[in-house]
Structures are given as structure tokens and as C-alpha cells.
UniProtKB/TrEMBL annotation:
<dbReference type="GO" id="GO:0005730">
    <property type="term" value="C:nucleolus"/>
</dbReference>
<dbReference type="InterPro" id="IPR037151">
    <property type="entry name" value="AlkB-like_sf"/>
</dbReference>
<keyword id="KW-0560">Oxidoreductase</keyword>
<dbReference type="InterPro" id="IPR027450">
    <property type="entry name" value="AlkB-like"/>
</dbReference>
<keyword id="KW-0227">DNA damage</keyword>
<keyword id="KW-0479">Metal-binding</keyword>
<dbReference type="GO" id="GO:0006307">
    <property type="term" value="P:DNA alkylation repair"/>
</dbReference>
<dbReference type="GO" id="GO:0046872">
    <property type="term" value="F:metal ion binding"/>
</dbReference>
<dbReference type="InterPro" id="IPR005123">
    <property type="entry name" value="Oxoglu/Fe-dep_dioxygenase_dom"/>
</dbReference>
<dbReference type="GO" id="GO:0051747">
    <property type="term" value="F:cytosine C-5 DNA demethylase activity"/>
</dbReference>
<dbReference type="GO" id="GO:0051213">
    <property type="term" value="F:dioxygenase activity"/>
</dbReference>
<comment type="subunit">
    <text>Interacts with PCNA homotrimer; this interaction is enhanced during the S-phase of the cell cycle. Interacts with nucleolar proteins NCL, UBTF and NPM1. Interacts with XRCC5-XRCC6 heterodimer.</text>
</comment>
<keyword id="KW-0234">DNA repair</keyword>
<keyword id="KW-0460">Magnesium</keyword>
<feature type="domain" description="Fe2OG dioxygenase">
    <location>
        <begin position="149"/>
        <end position="256"/>
    </location>
</feature>
<keyword id="KW-0408">Iron</keyword>
<keyword id="KW-0223">Dioxygenase</keyword>
Length: 257
């Protein structure tokens, strides 16, 4: 049995019963079914055949759903995939809009997917690069693990600890409501931090602006899935981190047309 503890960075009440050796007001409920009295926006995410190895975490007041498998790929397989992706994908450093200004993305990216899966984010319209055999095989493996379907992937190459991802939500209209995003990490371990979106009320009408955040450690070969209303109520980021080497993150998505 795998046990996974989410480290809570701020002392906030979370839904569910306390985990062993944690503050009862700072526990994340890990269970296989959403309690009847907590059914709301995150309950209509369709993941009917997710593998039992995916650990479910219901976010505070059930404002989202995270599934996590820390050992989805073996160390050997992860090492092989990292080397192959670094050398084979057409990595680019794109210009994006940030606070109304053109800036260089602080990482390298490739947008890949079905021919119809164009995607606009940060003021840039991305046309998909055709699937490679390696990436589509990873997609199919993740689809089997999660029970979800994907037609595109944003590949991110963090060359070292100076490359990062700022706080954002993947809530573009192409992804639709309650989108499912599967994030595969390969290479150096990085922090993945969630923070409540300011000014967004939860289904339980909690006070807008309540401070809450928590993080995962994304080791090589780990798979994290964001589902339910996660993008509506939460932002996420990968901050700069000293002394780390290269890492690739593949975020699989379903673009709706």
C-alpha cells in the first residue's frame, strides 16, 4: 500500500477526517468516494475507470479533485524518456503576453496533438506539432491509468532551477468546464504549489480571499491529475528552485471544438 501525505503550507480547515500525526484542521481527506453531503461541482468529473493506484485528494470544501500516482513510470523508464524527449522534440522559447507586455517564456515548450487541437494561452495561438510515437504511447498509457481521453499535450522543458511556471489556472474556454489535465513529470524533482484563487467563492460560500495553499513534490515518473472544479477555484505554479537539473513535464489535455 502506498501512503501519500500532502504538506499543507498554511493552516486552513480542509474537508474530511484528519490523517495520522497531522493537525485535525490541516488534513486532506483521501478516500475512494465523495461523501454524500459534499457532492458539488467536483463530483461530475468523469473518471469511471481510474486505476486504484491513483490516490484521490478532495480539495478544501471539495472545490476540486487531485489524483496522484508517485511511481507511474519506473526510474529506468523515466530516464530513457527524458533523454529521448530532450533530443527529439522541437523545443522553442516563445514570446507570451504577461501583464500586457511581450516576454520570453521562462522555459521551453512544444504544443503537440491532433490536427484540430489548436490552443490559445497567454495571448499566443498554438498550432499542434504532430504526435511522435513516444508521446502518443505515453498518452495511451495515461488514458489507461485515468480512464480519461486526451487529444493534446503541452510539453514543458525546465532546463534548470531558473526555469519556472508562475501561478495560473488552466481555464481557457477550449478546455471546457471541469477539465481533466494529466501532468507527467520526468527528471529533477520540483515543487508544485496550489493556491486558492482570489475573489472566487467556493460552493460553500467561504469568504473570498481566504488564504490557503498546499504542495506536492513531483518526482521523476510521477503522474498528477487535476479534475473537477480545480481550475475554477485554484491556481498552481512551479517556482524557481536552486540546485536542480533538467525536468520535462507533459500536461495532457482534451481540447473541445
Amino acid at each position: 500500500m502506498i501512503t501519500f501525505i500532502v504538506r499543507v503550507l498554511t493552516d486552513i480547515p480542509l474537508a474530511g477526517a484528519p490523517l495520522s500525526r497531522m493537525n485535525p484542521d490541516s488534513a486532506v481527506h483521501l478516500e475512494s468516494n465523495i461523501p454524500d453531503d459534499e457532492l458539488n461541482e467536483c463530483s461530475d468529473t468523469i473518471l469511471p475507470s481510474a486505476s486504484p493506484s491513483m490516490i484521490k485528494t478532495y480539495l478544501p470544501r471539495t472545490t476540486g479533485l487531485i489524483l496522484f500516482n508517485p511511481t507511474f513510470l519506473s526510474f529506468k523508464r523515466s530516464t530513457e524518456v527524458l533523454s529521448a524527449l530532450i533530443s527529439s522534440l522541437p523545443w522553442q522559447c516563445k514570446d507570451i503576453k504577461m501583464f500586457g507586455k511581450d516576454v520570453k517564456e521562462p522555459r521551453l515548450t512544444v504544443w503537440m496533438g491532433d490536427s484540430s487541437a489548436s490552443y490559445k494561452y497567454s495571448g499566443v495561438l498554438l498550432q499542434p506539432t504532430p504526435w511522435t510515437p513516444l508521446v502518443i504511447s505515453l498518452k495511451e498509457q495515461i488514458e489507461a491509468e485515468t480512464g480519461a481521453r486526451f487529444n493534446s499535450v503541452l510539453c514543458n522543458y525546465y532546463r534548470d532551477g531558473n526555469d519556472y511556471m508562475g501561478y495560473h489556472s488552466d481555464d481557457e474556454k477550449e478546455l471546457g468546464p471541469n477539465s481533466i489535465i494529466a501532468s507527467l513529470s520526468i527528471g529533477a524533482e520540483r515543487r508544485f504549489i496550489f493556491k486558492a484563487r482570489e475573489g472566487v467563492k467556493t460552493p460553500r460560500n467561504l469568504k473570498a480571499g481566504d488564504k490557503r495553499s498546499f504542495e506536492y513534490k513531483l518526482s521523476s515518473g510521477s503522474l498528477l491529475v487535476m479534475a473537477g472544479a480545480t481550475q475554477k477555484f485554484w491556481k498552481h505554479s512551479i517556482p524557481k528552485q536552486r540546485g536542480v537539473t533538467g525536468r520535462i513535464n507533459l500536461t495532457f489535455r482534451l481540447i473541445n471544438k
